[in-house]
Design brief:
With 164 residues, this protein is α/β, with parallel strands linked by helices. The chain has six helices and five strands. The chain is globular and about 45 Å long.
């Protein structure tokens, strides 16, 4: 039998409405259970500036050197990625919860699960952006299938998609 207490929460971010709702849920859990909160942004290779400019081989070398130098991968993100993290940082700061940012580059579901393993997450919170009861063919579905821990899927409400 696993742990009965939630100690480490990982929220997956992509900057869309669903992930922001997931972040708010993560903040609520962190406050309720007085647990660690970490949030991860996975940048697809195509969402990174240098990848498009220099090609795959040179970009892989850039990534390697960044890691060796201990530099932050955040520096490589496009404006979309940086904006997603700014929104998250602002939201977390306003909540008063202490949280840690994680940035990875690669396949969303694989990197989310890798991050969960690395930090020993008890739960992953992930949002979906389209109301789909079965969340078929989504990152959330893939994460739920391969995750080493529980996954909470935060669905948007229909009102999110109805213009007023």
């Amino acid at each position: 039998m696993g742990k009965d207490v939630i100690e480490k929460v990982l929220v997956a971010l992509d900057g869309n409405v669903g992930s922001i709702k997931a972040l708010h849920m993560g903040v609520k859990l962190a406050k309720s259970f007085d647990c660690e909160l970490k949030y991860v942004y996975i940048a697809p290779m195509t969402d990174v500036y240098q990848y498009e400019l220099v090609g795959e081989a040179q970009f892989e070398e850039t990534l390697r050197s960044f890691k060796e130098e201990g530099r932050n991968l955040r520096e490589l993100l496009s404006e979309r990625g940086k904006r997603a993290l700014e929104i998250a940082n602002t939201s977390i700061k306003e909540s008063g919860v202490v949280a840690e940012e994680i940035v990875k580059i690669g396949n969303n579901s694989e990197e989310i699960v890798k991050a969960a393993r690395e930090i020993g997450a008890d739960i992953i919170i992930i949002g979906v952006n389209i109301p789909n009861p079965a969340f078929k063919n989504s990152t959330a579905q893939e994460v739920a299938e391969i995750s080493p821990c529980s996954v909470l899927v935060v669905a948007p409400t229909w009102s999110t998609f109805i213009s007023k």
